[in-house]
Design brief:
There is one protein chain. This protein is of the alpha/beta class. The chain folds into two domains: 39-119 and 227-261, Periplasmic binding protein-like II (D-Maltodextrin-Binding Protein, domain 2), CATH 3.40.190; 122-221, Periplasmic binding protein-like II (D-Maltodextrin-Binding Protein, domain 2). The protein is 44% helix and 25% strand. The protein is built from ten helices and ten strands. Helix 2 (50-63) runs antiparallel to helix 10. The longest helix is centred in the N-terminal third of the chain and has 35 residues, at 2-36. The N and C termini lie far apart (86 Å). The relative contact order is 0.19.
């Protein structure tokens, strides 16, 4: 009887050991799979920053193995509304001061986790083959100029900067009926490049990046508010420490060199 009980206990121990071993393998496999999955960092970004931010994202990934940066371009105001609707953005990069203040007030952006990382200037552009005598902002009042592209002021900082430039010369009443609103700054540039409008307001960096023969800059414009790009970590982000690292990366040497290479100014 004792021998039988001993064999039973031995069989039980072997069965338990096999179960424990199998469980260990399953746990180790699950841990390995989890570690192999890249951590995703989602950055909502002003569409005018798409080119340099792609390079900045790659350099951040290189410095943070196992991290994948996803960029979602758009107009900053629209991106902020998407964040309010539950979009899974860890950061909003490229907002102006007005958009950032709105995001903080709506408790969508963390006020303490922010960075100013680049600057720009606003320019007036016309189609490259235009024969119209448009050489400065005041010339947009000429009767030959029928359509002027600019971003939607409600969601697009470039549109607000354009309105500031127009207001500075008290031209809004005479130009308002000619304005063609674009969803974002690249869309306004595309209208000018396609000669679908007689003129448009875009950033200097965008004009410089446009293919040769599409448009030409006729004036660099002064704006009451300096053109600066801000970045904030989202309140709902589940990756706040990693997002804060991205903020620091935006001010780092590699990122700043990329912004300046593509015509952006210092913050």
């Amino acid at each position: 009887m004792g021998a039988h009980n001993g064999r039973a206990r031995a069989c039980h121990r072997r069965a338990w050991f096999r179960q424990a071993l199998n469980f260990g393998w399953v746990l180790m496999l699950a841990t390995t799979v989890a570690q192999a999955q890249p951590r995703a960092l989602t950055v909502a970004v002003d569409a005018s920053l798409a080119r340099p931010m792609a390079a900045v994202a790659r350099s951040f990934e290189a410095a943070h193995p196992g991290v994948a940066v996803k960029l979602v371009p758009g107009a900053p105001g629209t991106l902020l509304d998407q964040l309010a609707s539950g979009a899974d953005f860890d950061l909003l990069a490229g907002s102006d001061a007005q958009t950032a203040a709105s995001g903080v007030q709506r408790r969508l952006l963390v006020p303490e986790l922010n960075s100013a990382f680049a600057g720009n200037t606003l320019v007036l552009v016309v189609p490259a083959r235009s024969k119209l005598p448009v050489q400065r902002l005041a010339d947009l009042g000429r009767p030959e100029v029928l359509r002027i592209a600019m971003g939607q002021q409600a969601v697009e900082p470039a549109g607000r900067y354009a309105r500031e430039a127009i207001n500075a010369q008290r031209l809004w009443p005479s130009l308002q009926s000619k304005i063609v609103l674009a969803g974002d700054e690249p869309a306004a540039l595309a209208l000018v490049a396609a000669a679908a409008v007689e003129a448009g307001f875009v950033y200097a960096s965008s004009a410089a990046a446009a293919p040769a023969g599409q448009l030409r800059v006729v004036e660099t414009l002064a704006t009451a508010t300096p053109v600066r790009y801000l970045a904030h970590v989202g309140v709902a982000s589940q990756q706040k420490p990693l997002a804060a690292d991205f903020l620091r990366h935006l001010r780092g040497e590699a990122a700043q060199a990329e912004f300046q290479r593509l015509g952006f100014g210092l913050p």
